[in-house]
Amino acid sequence: MKMAEELGNWRRTHYSTQVTPALDGQDVTVFGWVGSVRRQSGITFVMLNDKEGKIQVTLHRAEASAELVKRFESICEHMSIGVRGKVKKMAKSPSGAEIIPVDAKILSLPTLRPAFSVYGGNLPSLEKRLDIRTADLRREKAQAIFSIMRTVLRAVREFLQDNGYLEVVTPKLISSATEGGASLFSVLYYNKPAFLTQSPQLYKEQLVMPFEKVFEIGPAFRAEESRTQRHLSEITSVDIEEAYVDYNDIMSTLERMLRHVLKKIGSECSDEFSRLKANPPKAPAEFRSLTYDDVVSRLEKQGQTISWGEDMTGRAIAKLAKELGSFYYITDWPSSSKPFYIKPDLKNPKVCESFDLMYGPLELASGGSRVSSKSLLVRRLKEQKLRPQAFDYHLRAFDYGMPPHAGFGLGLERLMMVLTSEENIREVTLYPRDKLRLVP
Ligand code: AMO
Predict the structure, then answer these.
(1) Which atom of ligand 1 sits closest to the CA of residue 233?
(2) In ligand 1, which atom is closest to the CA atom of 367?
(3) Tens digit of each residue's pLDDT (9 = 90 or more) over 111-152
(4) Neighbours of 179 (CB within 10 A)
(5) In the chain, what are the domain boundaries?
């Protein structure tokens, strides 16, 4: 059986994007995987990809050693190779330079090849691609999406840190539900029942006591029964929580954070967006804010009846959402429709100090002012048919004095759908999880 070669003492001297016409005549060593191989009369073109981009390697067979020609004959797509060679200025090659190889190592021997080109063209179904997700992620489009995601994460961290929020990491194994019992995943914790966290809600709230302003970017698990284009069973949630502010302050922080993200991807991801043939969304001059009641009466004018208290699903507000367009808030939801920790309006406790951030019909984030009084929290738990005893560990924190506080949770994947104009959340998730998918 043929064996892949050893790396030995070969080490990279340049990434693909560093091989520029200015290096004409210089010796370089590059590594990467093969995106395409074209064999023409007398010449073999290999497109080598690494984490930074791609570079063309051009073998003139008549001028190369018999040994090197033989190696290049076996090169196929997705193989990992190392190439030593000389840089040659070449106006016709995609980066203005190419590498003329003098030696090569074959470092992996693929036995299968995906049924698509990494550079575009016809694609098999999403499900088929997800089955071989690691190879699928080598596609230029997927590379562009996740490059944008890295910029988004960097921009979010930058904004929050610059604004004095402290990054925290909270437990993902928990003992009680925070966002409603139906969507909980159970696990065995040393033979005792436990759950995977649906959101860092209760911990981030507790942490405003010692730290005032916290944020977390981490996984959250939702046992969603419906399999839709915008639901996953495991998401990445961007959460903030802050003491001595209310939901209006938090809406303004979220708006400023998203403006920072849009600015960053606008200035740093133009290549990625041109590969996606998409434009990042433009933020409106200001994020509009409608109350739940405003939305209900607008829907009624359109001939749709919503019973007060009902959640507004994507479909119910689809028509209105077109009108409202990009980023807008729906605020002051019925208290019965929001979790127990959201603070009811003191003057009208039927509604609460809450908001959803929407983009068209898609909910991107939700948040609100929180209940900071223990007795009110116990009452809210009971109203929502939850057992206060199950939240004892949380309620006890309130005995030591909980300041007023507010926060939001933003779904990273939902945000990425909007930023990259992808309709299916799975395209913007490395390894999506849903009711029918737990591998790869
Ligand atoms: P909520 O349950 O609304 O609020 O979740 C916050 C955001 O997370 C995203 N999201 C999802 N994305 C994809 N698939 C899912 N199954 C899914 N579930 C939620 C959405 C949603 O807006 N603790 C509160 C937040 C807070 O008040 O701070 C919470 O979890 O984008």
Answers:
(1) 16
(2) 27
(3) 999 999 999 999 999 999 999 999 999 999 999 999 999 999
(4) 17
(5) 16-106, 135-428
